[in-house]
Amino acid sequence: MNLALVAVVLAIGGGAVLAVSTRDGAVAAIGIAIALVGSALLSDPLPSAAVLGVRVVAALLVATMIRSAMRTGPRQPSPAGWPSEALLATAGAVAGLGVAVGLASVAAASGVPGGLAGVGEPAPGGAVGGGTTTVTSMALITAAGTSLLALGAAPLVHGRPGPRRAIGLVLVTQAVLLLRIGIAGPAVELEEIAREALLVVAGATGAALAIATASTAAAHEAAETLSP
Amino acid sequence: MTLLILAAVALGTGLATIFTSGERRSLALAIGLVGSLIVLGLALVMPDTDSLIVGGVGMVSTPVVRAMAVAWSASLAVLGLLEIAVGGRPTVVGPSLIGLAVAGVALATRDPASSMAALAAGGVAGVVVPGLAGWLDGPDMPSRLPTTSRGTLAILGSGLLGLGVIAWGASAAGPLGGEGGPVSIDPSAQLSLGIALLVIVAAVAIRTGLIPLHVWAARFMEGVSPLAIPAAFAWGSAAFVLVALDWSQVALGPAAASGGERWLIIFVAMTSVVLGGLAAMVHDDIEHVLGYSILQDAGVAVLAFASLDPGVVAAARNWLVASATVKTALAAWASVVRTTYGGHRLDDLGGWARHSPALGVAFAGILVAAIGLPNMALFQARTDLVSSAMPGIGQVVALLIAAMPAIYLGRIAIAGLAPVSPAVRAGLSGRPRWTGGRAAGWSGGPINQAIRAIPVELRANRAPLMALGVVALAVMALLTATGGAGG
Q: How far off is chain B from A123, nearest CA to CA, in Å?
């Protein structure tokens, strides 16, 4: 029984909830780091050391950039509060398991050996659990992806410009990258590099735009203070 | 192997240009120019049948990859020179080099997920760098920052959407994830193929800014240097469409575009073709004409998704590379006109061609390349794309579409032949002149004088030299419109 993967999924969800809910910039950056490093480790078996290194370095780089954006940006905690965000993350994860079940049934119906992502299907990456019901590692990756998607979509789409939108952008990007693996299987090495480049670019862009927004807001405040 | 070296050089010099541009403009421009010249040299010597395996994925440099690399890098070298002459923050060469690097790798890679992720990552610089520069240069226009933000979301969002549908294609529910056999004729499978096709077309529509998703693109083009527009839209979009087309052809096949999806795609594409063309005709602002004409070109390319026939996809390759080259030349013309005469509305540009004959010659070349002649690859590609989507009336519709650039570019040409307006008369002279090359107090010998005269004469002839750059781009546009992409 590989409970480590379940723990990693919980850590990803917890980190993401922390990132979108907290008022403190440093804590949000820690939350992002937990979610992204957890996503890097969410694989069974673990990838080669080089690929793992690329993933972890990219995750920490993104967390650093988000932290730098939050130094100057306004505080933008979740208006719904952390309990609501946690419930949202849980609902997203359950939906992801549902997607995995659907894919497993399609795979079984079409006679694909060893369904990729499912509950009740032995996957190449091994199964988590025992008895009659098993949760494959791919299903857990899909669940983590949908969980991050549920958490990141609102800040990205409806959030005001600033650090919260940057966090949303990073979470949604990581969510799609996880879903890509969860439903279609492991990536080749070249894709791993492109994926991590995409994650870093998303973090850098979000951070740059958040810093620019903060400087605009500061300029407005200064102008209002100076005006009679 | 040459392609990998090209990508590495382009990526390195592109990043170096962006990182140095904030503090040391001259150094950044020099790095960018040297980088683009090296990349051009590598593109010219690159074989079009090279292949190797990198990171577990095969990479094949096809004639299309080579044609795109040559056309993009050659136009980039000229744009780099024009950027030096135009002035302002360096926002053109750095993002373009990054875009060229990822586009080359993405088009050569046989793994669509890698291609899509790379294009999404590499395309962002083309929007963020000029967008933030435009925002910094226009403190009285705070809306430029939200526009840049929307542009970034569009680039990343289209890439993520593409990545998602590619993952679906390789999943157990997709056509490539099952037994790997031919596409099922089961009705539910047909429906899922159709939906997948619509999703990838939606990603293309977001990336290229098709109507009605064009608002961010139109606002973006208002606030940046026209020289930065080709990398963000013409070339970046072309690479994205090419990758999406290749995937659709392999994973979905022509059967995916057999029902209502086909008509929906034709409707979306033709909406952009017609409304984009009309908008270009009614606008007096040359940047708007440029933007809407690029949008119209993208609409024509999207028609390829309505059939996914191999012949039509080949026509789309020709169309995308040729139209991107033509629009690069048009963007350069717009930038040089704006720098030379200060204005960008047709009312202010009366007699621009009379005042600068070289710019007039260049524009004539751009006009011919944009419309095309019946034996040109661009003209044939447009006819094939439209005819495949609308059998029977395609030839007539293609001629009508070809007439649109004749009208909107023809208006600009007529303005150029009109009497010279005061604004144009007050601008830089477009005719070459010799100042004598001798600054006050010089007493050196003839060689010293000649060397010292070079920068003086270059500055004095800035406008005709810029016009010469546009002539070079117009010649490239004509060559590419004639020869296509070898697709």
A: 12
Residues 6+ apart with CB under 8 A from B304: B245, B312, B313, B315, B316, B385, B388
Q: Cα A69 to chain center, whole Å?
A: 18
List b or e across B35-61, with b for residues whose CB sees 16 or more CB atoms inside 10 angstroms.
bbbbbbebbeebeeebeeebbebebeb
In whole angstroms, what is the distance from residue B320 CA to residue B317 CA?
A: 5
- Going by C-alpha positions, the residue among A132, A189, A114, A145 that lies closest to residue A8 is A145
Residues lower than pLDDT 70 in chain B: 139, 176-188, 430, 435-445, 486-487
Q: What secondary structure does DSSP assign to B434-461, as a single string?
A: ---S--TT----HHHHHHHHHHHHHHHT
Q: Does pTM surpass 0.90? A: no
A218 vs chain B: nearest CA distance in angstroms?
13
CB pairs under 8 A between A and B: 129
pLDDT tens digit string along A211-227?
A: 888 877 666 666 666 66
Residue B192: partners with Cβ closer than 8 Å, 6 or more residues away: B173, B174
Model pLDDT, residue B447? 74
Determine contact: A48 vs chain B, CB below 8 A.
Answer: no
Average pLDDT over every residue of A176-197? 89
User: Do residues A137 and A114 make contact, with C-beta atoms less than 8 angstroms apart?
Assistant: no
pLDDT of A119 > 70? The answer is no
Assess A180–B contact: CB distance below 8 Å, yes or no. yes
In angstroms, what CA-CA distances link A70 with A23, A28, A106, A187, A198? Answer: 10, 9, 44, 32, 21
